[in-house]
Amino acid sequence: MSKKKQLQNAAELPEVSVSDDGDVRYLHLGTPWIQGSMKVDEPFDIELEYVQRMMAWLLFVDPAGVGKRHAMQLGLGAGAITKFCHKKLRTRTTAIELNPQVISICRAWFKLPQDGPRLRVVLGDAAVEIRNPEWLGTVDALAVDLYDHQAAAPVLDSAEFYADCRQLLTDDGCLTVNLFGRMSSYESSLQKLADVFGEDALWAFKPTREGNTIVLAQRTPTAPKRAELMERAEQVQARWDLPATKWLRVFSRVQPAAKA
C-alpha cells in the first residue's frame, strides 16, 4: 500500500480515545462504546468476560506445549488477547490492526510491549493480510474481534473471510470469534462458519449479559468427553487464572440446525 493511500485510510478512521473508571481503563473509537479495557494494576490480565472466553482454545491443547504455539489476533482493541498470549502464555503472538492510532494508544496507555522475537503487530487490513502466504497454516489460535466503531456489527463476516481464516490454521488450530448472540445476524454468521468448517467443528458459549457470544471453530473437529474438558479446564484455571471451569457450564458443541 502506498504512503498516500495509508494516509487517506487513516484520515477516514475514527478517533481513538481513552477513559478511566476507577482502576479500569477503556478504549473508545469515536463513540462512548467500549472497544477494549484493562485493569491498570493488572495490565496483562484479561478484564472483560467475553474476551476471557476467546481463550477457550486452551481447552483443546496440551497446556505444557502452549508456549510453542502461535496466536494471532485480528483487531487489536486494547490489546488484551495479544498481551495475555505474549506475557502469560509466552506464545509467539501476532496482531493485525488497521488503525495506526489504536497501536499507538495501546503502547502509550495499555502497556502493549514493543515488537520483539515473539511479538509482532502488523499495521494493515486483516482481510488482505490474512491472505499473505507467510501466515498460511501457521496459526494455532486465531482470535477475531472485528467490529465497527459503533460496536454494532462485525466488519468481516463472509464465508470467504472465514475460509481465509481456516487456511491460516494448523491442523489442530482453532478460530474464536466474537458474535452478538442476541442479534438477527448471529444465525447467519453461524451458518457461514458451519459451511466453511463443518457443523461438527463448532462450539459456542451462551451469550454474556451484554450479548457477546464466542464461537469456536476447529480446523480438525474433535469430540473430547466432558471429563476430559473438565480436566483441561482445571489445568487452564490453575496455570493462567482464567475461569475455565465455569466456562463448561455455558460452553458446548453447536447443535446442527434442523433440516426443513
UniProtKB/TrEMBL annotation:
Keywords: Polyamine biosynthesis. SUPFAM superfamilies: S-adenosyl-L-methionine-dependent methyltransferases. Coiled coil: none annotated. Transmembrane segments: none annotated. InterPro entries: SAM-dependent_MTases_sf. GO terms for biological process: polyamine biosynthetic process. The keyword Oxidoreductase does not apply. It comes from the Bacteria. This is Spermidine synthase. It comes from Diaphorobacter ruginosibacter. The lineage of its organism: Bacteria, Pseudomonadati, Pseudomonadota, Betaproteobacteria, Burkholderiales.
